[in-house]
Amino acid sequence: MKNENGFYASILVIVVLIFSIPISVFSQTEERVIPENAKSMINPLKDSMQFLPEAKKIYKSHCTPCHGTKGKGDGPSAYTCDPKPADHSSDFVQNRTDGELFWLISNGHTQTPMVSFKKTVNATERWKLILYIRSLAAKKT
């Protein structure tokens, strides 16, 4: 009888895993629809080292709680986020256009804890954040 109960418990665990894994995978990869006109927006700031010190301060203040100091998605609040925060050094983020990143920073992401920064970070600072996020690509290790 004990072996039979263990067998059924194992089957139940497997069934739960089978049905929960696809849900978690889809929830973490679901895309928020970004308008086409936003995708083609170009950062008005030149990619310049002059903006990085200020951009790093803005990032530290607004982004590191979730995304971490190196942008890996491992900030002190990340463990409370579902899905996990994006890794800003990843190809997934780095392959987005500046316009897509600006739109996501501005509007947030309804499928994640990512909030809108439109009212708390001005447009110039959001463009600076994008320059800083781009600088994280070189810091993948």
Would you give an account of this structure?
This protein has 141 residues and is mostly helical. The chain folds into 2 domains: 1-30; 34-139, Cytochrome c-like domain (Cytochrome Bc1 Complex, Chain D, domain 2). 52% of the residues lie in helices and 0% in strands. It is built from 7 helices and no strands. The chain has helices spanning 2-29, 36-39, 52-62, 64-67, 91-94, 98-107, 123-135. Helix 3 (52-62) crosses helix 7 and helix 6 crosses helix 7.
Question: What topology does this entry show?
Answer:
Blueprint: H1 2-29, H2 36-39, H3 52-62, H4 64-67, H5 91-94, H6 98-107, H7 123-135
Helix pairs in contact: 3-7, 6-7
What brief labels describe this structure?
141 residues; mainly alpha; Cytochrome Bc1 Complex, Chain D, domain 2
Give a quick summary of the entry.
The chain is an all-alpha fold and about 140 residues long. The chain is built from seven helices and no strands.
In CATH terms, what is the fold-level topology of the largest domain?
Answer: Cytochrome Bc1 Complex, Chain D, domain 2
Rg (C-alpha, Å): 19 Å
In round numbers, the mean pLDDT is: 84
SSE pattern: HHHHHHH
| Assembly form of the protein | single chain
